[in-house]
Amino acid sequence: MDKKNILLGVTGGIAAYKMVNVASGLTKKGHEVHVIMTDSAQEFISPISFKTITGFVVESDLFEHNKDQEVKHITLADNADLMLIGPATANIIGKVANGIADDLLSTIVTAVRSPVIIAPSMNVNMFNNPIVQDNINYLKQKGYDMISPAEGRLACGYEGKGRLPEPEILIDYVLKKLTEKDLADKKILVTAGPTQERIDPVRYITNKSSGKMGYALAKRAVYRGAKVKLISGPTTLSMPLGVDFERVETALDLYNSVMNCFKDFDIVVMAAAVADFTPKDYAEDKLKKDNQDNFTLNLKRTNDVIKEVVKNKNKEQVVVGFAAESKDLIVNAEKKLINKGLDMIVANDIKNKKIFNKDESEVVVITREQKIDISRSAKENIADRIYDMLK
Ligand code: CTP
To answer: Which of 17, 146, 233, 352 would be 193's cystine partner, CB 3.0–4.6 Å?
Structure first.
C-alpha cells in the first residue's frame, strides 16, 4: 500500500494510552500519522508520546498561531486519506452527530472528506444511554464507520461493553478501510495450518506448520474485499477479522469441511499442511511402552483433499496448492501442479530455516504459463502477489 495520511483523533478516555500503539503500528507500516488531541485527552496522556512516535507535532489548538499562514484544521482535513477517532467519548460522538465544531478535533471531523472511523469507549451505562445510541446509529446512517466497543472490565469498575478494542484491531480496521477492494467480486476459500492425527488420548502425528501463510492469505483477501472462508487446523494464531472461520483437527475433518463448501467459491487456496497418513486405529487408552524396544504404528492414507476438489470443481473455479520440498524444488512442485491438475502451485524450500513460523517467506509461484520468484518478503505481501496473478 502507498503511504497514506492518517488522522488520529484522541479524546478524553482512559483508553487514550492505547492510541500510542495504534500510532506506532501505523507509522511502522510506513504511513504518515497526525494526532489531534482534545484538552481532556491531554489529562490522560502527554502529546509528547505521540510526537516521539509519529515525528509530527500533536495538534490541539484551533487558534494557535501558525507561521505558514495555513488554516490548520482545513489543511489537516484536506490532506487526510482516513480519520480514526478513538477512544471516542459520548461527548465527541454527540458533537459530530449534531454538527458541533467548537475545538480543533470537532472542526476537523466536520471538514474532513475522507472516511471517518469512530471507536466509542466509555462506561457501559453511558454507552447504553439512548441518546448516545441514537447518535451512534445516526452517524452510521450518515456513512461513519463504527467499531463496536469490546466487553470486559471497565476502568470505572463496571463490567460490560465499553472497552476500546486492542490496538491491533484498530490498526486492522484502518488498513482494511484503506485497501482497494479489487477482489470484491470474489469468494475465496483458504485452508491453513497443520492437521493432527490422533494416535491415543495424548499423542498425535502432525506436520510442521504455523498456519501463518494461510492466515495471511485469508487476511489479505478480506482486506481486498473478497468474501472469505478460512478452514484452519490447530494453530496459535488469532482469527483474522471478517472471515467466516471454521476450526478442524484431522485430515478427515478438513476433507469433510472443504468438500461441503468448496463449490461456493471462485478460488480455493490449500495452504494447509495436511497429513498424508493417519493411524489405522485410534487407541482409546494411552499406549504403554511395556518394555518394548521398538514400536510399530500402522498408518493409512488420508484423502487427497485438493485432488478431490479438482476432480469435482467446475471450469471457472481456480485451485491453488502449496508444495513444501527439501530438494528439486521446481521439478517436484511442477510435478504436483500437473499431477493434481492445479492452476497454480506455491513452492517453498523447507531447507530454508528462515521461513518456518516466521512472518516472512520466499517462494516460487508456478502456473502453466509462468514461474515467478518472490524473494524474501512478508507473507501478507506474498499473499497479495498470489492474488494479483489470479485476478
Ligand atoms: N494436500 C491435500 N490433501 C492431502 C495432502 C496434501 O489437499 N492429503 C494439499 C496441500 O494442502 C498442498 C498440496 O496438497 O496444497 C501439497 O501436495 P502434496 O503432494 O500432498 O504435498 P506433500 O504432502 O508434501 O507430498 P509429498 O509428501 O509427496 O511431497
So the answer is: 233
Cα 377 to ligand 1 centroid, rounded to whole Å? 24
Q: Model-level pTM?
A: 0.89
| Rounded distance between C-alpha atoms, residue 217 and residue 387, angstroms | 9
Residue whose Cα lies nearest atom 18 of ligand 1: it is 323
Q: Is 149 in the pocket of ligand 1 (CB under 6 A)?
A: no
Atom 15 of ligand 1, residue of closest alpha carbon: 321
Number of domains in the chain: 2
Please tell me the distance between residue 348's alpha carbon and the centre of ligand 1 in angstroms. Answer: 12
* CATH classification of the domain holding 99: 3.40.50.1950
Q: What is the DSSP letter of 199?
A: E
Q: Which of 116, 124, 104, 120 is nearest to 57 (CA)?
A: 104
Task: Decide if 7 contacts 83 (C-beta within 8 A).
Answer: yes
Between the CA of residue 41 and those of 11, 53, 88, 105, 108, what are the distances in Å? 5, 17, 10, 11, 16
Reduce the secondary structure of 138-149 to three states and give it as a string: HHHHCCCEECCC
User: Ligand 1 centre and the CA of 322: distance in Å?
Assistant: 7
Domain identity same for 81 and 14: yes
Q: What is the pLDDT of residue 153?
A: 86
Q: Are 10 and 41 in contact (CB under 8 A)?
A: yes
The 10s digit of each residue's pLDDT in 279-338 is 999 999 999 988 889 999 999 999 999 999 999 999 999 999 999 999 999 999 999 999
Ligand 1: which residue has its CA nearest to atom 27? 276
One domain, residues 166 and 191: no
One domain for residues 228 and 147? no
Over the chain (391 residues), what is each successive 10-residue block's mean pLDDT?
95 96 97 97 96 95 69 86 98 98 95 97 95 98 97 85 95 95 98 98 96 97 98 96 96 98 98 98 94 93 98 97 95 97 96 80 96 95 97 88
- If asked whether residues 313 and 353 sit together in one domain, one would say yes
Ligand 1 neighbour 233 (Cβ under 6 A)? no
What integer pLDDT is reported at residue 249 of this predicted model? 98
